[in-house]
Amino acid sequence: AEDEDHPGFLNKAFVSNYGWKLHHLMNDVAQGKKSATDIQKYFTDSVSKYALGTFPLQFITNHDENSWSGSEFERMGDAVKTFAALIFTIEGIPLVYSGQEAGLKKRLRFFEKDTIAWNNLEMQKFYQALIGLKKGNSSLWNGVAGGRMKFVETSAPQQVLAFMRENDNNQVLSVFNLSAQPVEANIRLVQSGSYKEYFSGEKKRLEKGSVIKLEKWGFQVFVRQ
Question: 119-123 — which CB contacts under 8 Å span 24+ positions?
C-alpha cells in the first residue's frame, strides 16, 4: 500500500506499506538536520505498528521522490551508498527504483516518456552485493522469516547506528556512521564472537567492547562465522 497513515490496512488488506516517514528521516540525516538517534527512535516507535508477518517497503528513492524532490544524489549526496545499505539490512523489503544501478542522477519526467542512460552501470556491482547480502543471510529476510532488529549500544549514539539481527544459526551485525565526520566508536556487544565483514571479506573477532573506526558515512556489516 502506498500509505503509512493507516496501519490497520495491514491487518486486512496488505502485508506491506511504503516507509515514507523513515525515508524523510534519512533525507534529513543526510542533510545534517537529524542524527542516528532519530533513526533509532523511529524503529522504537514503529515496532507496534506492524502486525506479525507484515513489514514496510524501504527506499531511498521512488517514482514520486525522484521527479518531485530530486534523485538520491541530490538529496543524500555522499550518503547514498550508506542509506542504500541501511535499507537492505533493516527490517522490511528494499525497493530498487529504475536507474539506481546506473547511478541515475537526473529527475525523470513524471507524465511524459523519459529515458535512462544504461551505458554506465556504476552502481550495479554494489546493488548486486546488497541483494546477495540480503538473500544469503536468513536473519535479513522479511517478516516472520527474518530476525528482529536489536540495537547495540555505542559510545557515539548521535553518529553511530548499530544493530543485530539473527534467526536460527544466522547472525548479522550492522554498524553505520550516519554523519559527515569520521568516528571511532565503542560498540557494546552482548557476547563476543568471530565475524566476517561482508564487503571487505576481512575476518575479525569482535569482543564485547570492540572499537569500530568508520569514515564519514562509512558502514560495516559483520556476518557471524
Answer: none
